[in-house]
Amino acid sequence: MRHLLSTRDLGRDRIIELLDIAEDMADVSQREVKKLPTLRGKTVVNLFFEDSTRTRISFEAAAKRLSADVINFSAKGSSVSKGESLKDTAQTLAAIGADGVVIRHPASGAPQVLAASGWIDAGIINAGDGTHEHPTQALLDAFTIRRRIHGAASRGKGLDGVRVTIVGDVLHSRVARSNLWLLPTLGAEVTFVAPPTLLPADTTGWPATFGFDLDEAIDSGPDVVMMLRIQAERMSAAFFPNSREYSRAWGLDDARFSRLRPDSIVMHPGPMNRGLEISSAAADSVNSTVLEQVANGVSVRMAALYLLLSGDREDS
């Protein structure tokens, strides 16, 4: 695998291969010594132009468990704050011998530009670009769902027939866009539920259905309900009257949670706004996979780094 930029580029076989490798990485995480020598001598740079906790720490843990050397780069306090361009930053990383670059950037398409530029001959992983995509988040979501549904028999399986309802700020969510392409490729049926103002105006070609009534979606009995964070930092206008009205119409409160099937899965990519898009009862229940998603993220990112940096990297 040359780069990991978008879930739209991944076929079913490649996704299942990656998830199966993540299962092996999860087994390693249960050992007393949680390290493999696979990427010894490789250098991975976490290039984060946006604030992050879960994703950056997860990638750092993944790289270190594979014995890679890790360099953490933050735009704050770096030459980027003095006006340095992405090109100059990339050439600096090339000069120090970076083998892999994990990039989070506020501009949609920045990882694709970096991968196609020729400025650096390193494997590029998109850790979130603007409102475009966040591939490893969708992969860890799929990994978590597959484990919950298939348990120990997960290897080699997809998500055929699994009904996933994704609720909230779809317009600004790169997690939603990555899941949009990845989950149907694995056979899942995806439904988006949101206020009309928080759905994209053009959804032509999207392999999903759309609705505006969360109660109707809950009563249809979905296998998975994934709540999205309201991304106020990306909003330049009023997309709903106020947080109280949003929570009343589109929040997974205690009453809606109680109407879910006993085996329904409740997910959230984090960070959560408790009391706004999800109640504490739902977030802390046995149905919730929020902490599992964080733990599984390390295994999935280990698998991605392994495929990217071990052996020959072919074009994809």
From TrEMBL:
Species the sequence originates in: Cryobacterium roopkundense
Domain of life: Bacteria
NCBIfam families referenced in this protein's UniProt entry, alphabetically: asp_carb_tr, PRK00856.1
GO BP terms in the entry: 'de novo' pyrimidine nucleobase biosynthetic process; 'de novo' UMP biosynthetic process; amino acid metabolic process
Keywords: Pyrimidine biosynthesis, Transferase
The protein, known as: Aspartate carbamoyltransferase
Functional summary from the UniProt entry: Catalyzes the condensation of carbamoyl phosphate and aspartate to form carbamoyl aspartate and inorganic phosphate, the committed step in the de novo pyrimidine nucleotide biosynthesis pathway.
Subunit structure, as described in the record: Heterododecamer (2C3:3R2) of six catalytic PyrB chains organized as two trimers (C3), and six regulatory PyrI chains organized as three dimers (R2).
Keyword Endoplasmic reticulum: no
HAMAP family in alphabetical order: Asp_carb_tr
Residues given in the record as L-aspartate binding sites: 82, 174, 229
Example GO molecular function: amino acid binding
Family per similarity comment: Belongs to the aspartate/ornithine carbamoyltransferase superfamily. ATCase family.
EC number: 2.1.3.2
Higher taxonomy: Bacteria, Bacillati, Actinomycetota, Actinomycetes, Micrococcales
InterPro entries the record matches: Asp/Orn_carbamoyltranf_P-bd, Asp/Orn_carbamoylTrfase, Asp/Orn_carbamoylTrfase_sf, Asp_carbamoyltransf, Asp_carbamoyltransf_Asp/Orn-bd
Catalytic activity, reaction form: carbamoyl phosphate + L-aspartate = N-carbamoyl-L-aspartate + phosphate + H(+)
Aspartate/ornithine carbamoyltransferase carbamoyl-P binding domain mapped to chain residues: 2-146
PROSITE patterns recorded: CARBAMOYLTRANSFERASE
GO cellular component: cytosol
Keyword Transferase: yes
Pfam families: OTCace, OTCace_N
